[in-house]
């Protein structure tokens, strides 16, 4: 592969889950320098992944702890991008409460606290991350924001009403941000993955469900984290600047929009 993102600086949230790891490896392989972030409690793993990506990639990765609901943490990691790599071009908003959703619960069983936590992290945190990153992108004269949504906003998913609502909100936020930031050369899009066969999905779904999902796809196989990287890399690159406010579904042709 060529180095399509050579010289770009990317801030990636939620970097230590299986999908986040695939993004770091692909972004650095494409020449980007990546500030990979996740909750401080994952810093040991995060540093190991960043070191591996730096060793293998054309770009470098550095890990920094960041809770996306903390404005102070977000400012600190934007500053890391400036101090280590000279600025910020792209934000990949991948962090979310997903693996830690716990067992499926009907919408009559969900509590206000469970609802508020998922919406606070998955929606407010996504917006806070954009708010923190935009001033640094303005200094570069433009940028790219990629928000990670989910096809469950189209298909629904019994047992996760709060999560489904949060991912639908991420799509709405994407369109609002695209309208506001387009005049400044900042393109904002969402990538909407289907059900990925990763550790997080296996924690919260039974294996039969994963197996059944295969037959719902035009490409009838399980989906891997690596299936997502092409879309994210492209949306971070120079070639996609006139694409904004869109949601790109990557699910093997299960849902057509
Ligand atoms: N796995 C799937 O099937 C699937 C499908 C569609 C969309 N997605 C989305 O893809 C993204 C990655 O999913 P994943 O499977 O790797 O899940 P995951 O739960 O393993 O990863 C999410 C990451 O976000 C981090 N995170 C949670 N709260 C945070 C906070 N307050 N601040 C900073 N980081 C926080 C977690 O520590 C974790 O590393 C998520 O946005 C998820 O909703 C996943």
TrEMBL record:
- Which keywords appear in this protein's UniProt record, sorted alphabetically? Oxidoreductase
Q: What InterPro entries does the entry give?
A: KR_dom (IPR057326), NAD(P)-bd_dom_sf (IPR036291), Sc_DH/Rdtase_CS (IPR020904), SDR_fam (IPR002347)
For this protein, the record's Gene3D superfamilies field holds: NAD(P)-binding Rossmann-like Domain
**Gene Ontology molecular function terms on file:** oxidoreductase activity, acting on the CH-OH group of donors, NAD or NADP as acceptor
Q: Mind telling me which SUPFAM superfamilies this protein's record contains? A: NAD(P)-binding Rossmann-fold domains (SSF51735)
Entry's family note = Belongs to the short-chain dehydrogenases/reductases (SDR) family.
Identification of the protein by name = NAD(P)-dependent dehydrogenase (Short-subunit alcohol dehydrogenase family)
Q: What organism is the protein native to?
A: Saccharopolyspora dendranthemae
